Amino acid sequence: MTITVVVVDDGSLTFRGVIDVLRAAPEVTVVGVLPYLESVAELGVAPRVIVTNTFCAKSVADLQSLHHSTLLVMSPTIDVGQVRAALRAGVRAYLDWDVDPATLLRAVVAAGRGDVYLTMAARDALLPDPGRCLGGGPGRIDVPPVSLTARERDVLRLVAEGLTHKQIASRLSLSKSTVDTYAHRVRQKTGAANKAGLTRVAMSFAVEAEAYSS
């Protein structure tokens, strides 16, 4: 079963390339190319993923209520406020424009199955100003008050990169059941109810906490 995708084409050469890559991918079916995000509601098809360079919290909420679709945002600039606002609104993937085709497809697949996928530039945007500390103020990080082992942080970091438990097991030279156990422990410690919740924790906690605990 392929992932149905709608592309909101802004007319740029970048999005011409995006459309070509998606149409050539066997795991993706492009069901529409539209000029505006709001036009998706009139399409008559329920795409699983919408690829766009436009983010608006209200539009995301409206589209999700109508189609249960999720957004993949490709942005020419990565702004920490936009990335965080997008994740809070339910956007599942946030990429910078210069990603390669393989990364784009991994992000589409991850978003299609309900996971979160951020490229390195978007993940870096979630890190605070290195000149600020973990206290209050503009540079404050909302790190959950939990203690994770080094291996649990490794698993979280790889979840944030979009890897499956099987792929994580191979990367860390562990069995899949062991990775499942680590992921289960993290869910218990953080209150994440499922894999999607675990991925959100990886974005809000593991990426930031890893930078300060490594």
Automatic annotation (TrEMBL):
CDD domains under this entry? LuxR_C_like
Which stretches make up the HTH luxR-type domain?
A: 141-206
Keyword Cell wall biogenesis/degradation appears in the UniProt entry:
no
**Per the UniProt record, which residue ranges are transmembrane?**
none
Q: List the Gene Ontology MF annotations in alphabetical order.
A: DNA binding
Q: What is any Pfam family matched here?
A: GerE
Keyword terms:
DNA-binding, Transcription, Transcription regulation
Question: What's the name of the protein?
Answer: DNA-binding response regulator
